[in-house]
Amino acid sequence: MILSIESSCDDSAISITEIKTKKLLFHKKISQELEHSVYGGVVPELAARLHAEALPHILQQCEPYFKDLKAVAVTSTPGLAVTLVEGVTMAKAIAVSLDIPIIGVNHLIGHIYSLFIEKETIFPLTVLLVSGGHTQVMEVKSLTEIETVAKSMDDSFGESFDKVAKMMGLGYPGGPLIQELAKDGDRERFNFTVPLHQSPLIAFSYSGLKNAVRLAVEKSDESDYKDIAASFEHIATKHLTMKLKKYFKTVKPQTFAIVGGASANLYLRSQIEELLKPHNAKLLLSELKYCSDNAAMIGRVAVEMYEKEMFSSVEKLDVAPRSYF
Ligand code: KG4
Ligand code: ZN
């Protein structure tokens, strides 16, 4: 079995995955959403302290599995340096005390493998990753052959929901709150400009839209918020579908996946479904409970890395706030 730890942002999570069967034997996550909600976003220092409290608490529950552990895995990149360190330090202590190898997992690859928890992998895949930290399209051929073909030039899709929710004083995380508010709103009422709609670039940008929404919020009162939320969600999603449509002109999608915390967005899911219809492409989605950060997805990657002996060392494994591929 492999014990895997996730602490890249505001979720403390540990999983136990059986190597041979890929079965998820244990998974526990403690989210810090309530604690960060008053600030309208994640406060890194507070997040680190909460991980230091939550991770040992979850680890205690894993004690019965210790004797069967063949490796310990941990998210080491990308994420908040001060929170990644919490998980990595714990993983190193486990590796030393149980004398087992350590595996450093890339969180973004974790999101891709959230599609395959307790399942076999399906490749090649075109993946749209939409989370709080990232908005990017990747061509994935295997664990080690991942190419980013489009990414955000500034804010991410999920982050823009968080910022809009903050402007309206709704709390954090903004994604589910805006989605709920948008349900009864008029998507056409606020005519926000689709980002980069005249640009030939296949890239994303959310800072302009965020500012346009800020102006609308400032000029409106609370009774308009549901229409602003609906119009924002519509344009934020249209930006993704317009750029993907352009991309599909040169690279036809066969199997397409949406992953990351914001892949839980139902409007986004429905619009992508529509977009894929003429291509007869298959859409893969993670289970809702594995869209946001979790350790089950880290464990799923760890099994693949264990089989390929992609180990790190206690001395060398370091955290990297940014990651590239
Ligand atoms: O993957 P994740 O848990 O953390 C990162 O790796 O960043 O994603 C969290 C992000 C937050 O920005 C949150 O607002 C967004 O995902 N999110 C959503 C929805 N649910 C979560 N965004 C839009 N619609 C949702 N339903
Ligand atoms: Zn994530």
Helices and strands in order:
Elements: E1 2-6, E2 11-17, E3 24-31, H1 33-37, H2 44-61, E4 71-77, H3 81-98, E5 102-106, H4 107-113, E6 125-130, E7 135-142, E8 145-151, H5 157-167, H6 174-182, H7 207-219, H8 225-250, E9 255-259, H9 266-276, E10 282-285, H10 296-307
Parallel strand pairs: 1-4, 4-5, 6-9, 9-10
Antiparallel strand pairs: 1-2, 2-3, 6-7, 7-8
Helix pairs in contact: 2-3, 4-10, 5-6, 5-7, 5-8, 6-8, 7-8, 8-9
Explain what you see.
The chain is an alpha/beta fold and 325 residues long. The protein has helices at residues 33-37, 44-61, 81-98, 107-113, 157-167, 174-182, 207-219, 225-250, 266-276, 296-307; strands at 2-6, 11-17, 24-31, 71-77, 102-106, 125-130, 135-142, 145-151, 255-259, 282-285. The chain folds into two domains: 2-117 and 290-307, Nucleotidyltransferase, domain 5, CATH 3.30.420; 125-285, ATPase, nucleotide binding domain (Nucleotidyltransferase, domain 5, 2-Layer Sandwich). Helices cover 40% and strands 19% of the residues. It has a five-stranded mixed β-sheet with strand order 3-2-1-4-5, with helices on both faces. It has a five-stranded mixed β-sheet with strand order 8-7-6-9-10, with helices on both faces. Helix 2 (44-61) runs parallel beside helix 3 and helix 5 packs antiparallel against helix 8.
